[in-house]
Amino acid sequence: MRGSGLKSRQKSEQSSARAYHCGSYELRLTRRCQQEDLDYYGEEPFHDLAGHEIVRALIKRRSDGPSDTREVSPLSCGKPVYRLSYGNRHRGATWYDEVHGVVWLLAYGQHEFEGQGDVFPYFKDLDAEGQLLPGPADYEALFRDRDTDFVREIGAEAKVLLAGARSTPGWEVVATLASAVEVSVVVTVVESLEERHVAITMSEEMATEHFLLVLAALFPEKELGEIESADRMPGRSLTPHELAFKALVG
Amino acid sequence: MTVVVRLPEDVLSSARQAGAVRGRSAAEMMTEAWRQYLELNRDELAADFEEAAQLFRQGDHVALAEFASRSVEERAEEAAKKIRRS
To answer: ipTM value of the model?
Structure first.
């Protein structure tokens, strides 16, 4: 039998240092945009640039929804890049990276101000040079932040999940650990021992380290050699995405 | 220390070929690739698993975050390449 487990984490809309969380996605600035367009070399743009017009516009206009109606076009990158405006002067370009759940502020410029011309050719030049979209440094910062959240949440959530499974022996308890990895746990009591079955929903993109952390969080007392692969969960077959493991725990 | 970032392409393509012959779904091939990977690298992974379990027992979140981010540079490179390909 399957019971409900932990609820997925819902981030409330809140400002933080490197990102601004808007529920199912977050707002971020690319490093190139921060340094070259905003002349900012720190790590906390949503704190240090909170008063900047384009950051205020980003929060105000992209908090309600990640997309917009007016695009910067034509672009060679093949992505829908939206115009972001604040007053007559401040212009930005944003892209909703749906795969990673981020609205990126890709570029910023002042539009037709004190002798400066139309800012949109600048955005198009960046696109033509392959400099508009986020680069490795942007994803590294994103993944490091998410890894930190992942390990902070997974240990505590795994403990709650295991406690829930122990309190309902024979029932399958399901959770999405750290809002990222779906797992199921069934605990059965065998004499004085606990037999623990765990199913983990896998993906091609899951990093090996993350898989090991999930497994270690759910079998913290065991060595890897003491954990067996299982071809089914108690009472059901595995889904095509699942791998299952079991171990006796004293 | 584990150096493999994600499922290696040779393991994936081997599982895909075997799965295609047997008429398996993409998801079944992916989990088969994971099974193969875990089996083939069990000894190497055992040390990393023990390190992760130890860090959980100690509650060392800083070291756990470092462990989780070991392959972050490779993952970031791959993500940046992928958005330019798609």
So the answer is: 0.84
| CB–CB contact A212 B45 (8 Å) | yes
Higher pLDDT, A137 or B18: A137
Q: How would residue A21 be classed by pLDDT, with cut points 50, 70 and 90?
A: very high
Task: Determine whether the interchain pair A209/B53 forms a contact, defined as Cβ–Cβ distance below 8 Å.
Answer: no
Of the candidates B56, B59, B65, B12, the residue with the CA atom closest to the CA atom of residue A143: B65
Q: Contacts of residue B4 in chain A, CB cutoff 8 Å?
A: 208
- To test the contact with chain B by mutation, choose from A104, A126, A213 the residue with the greatest count of B C-beta atoms within 10 A, namely A213
Pairing relation of β-strands A26-29 and A102-110? parallel
pTM: 0.84
Beta strands in chain A (DSSP E): 2-4, 14-15, 20-21, 26-29, 81-86, 90-97, 102-110, 172-177, 181-190, 193-201, 228-230, 232-233, 236-237, 242-249
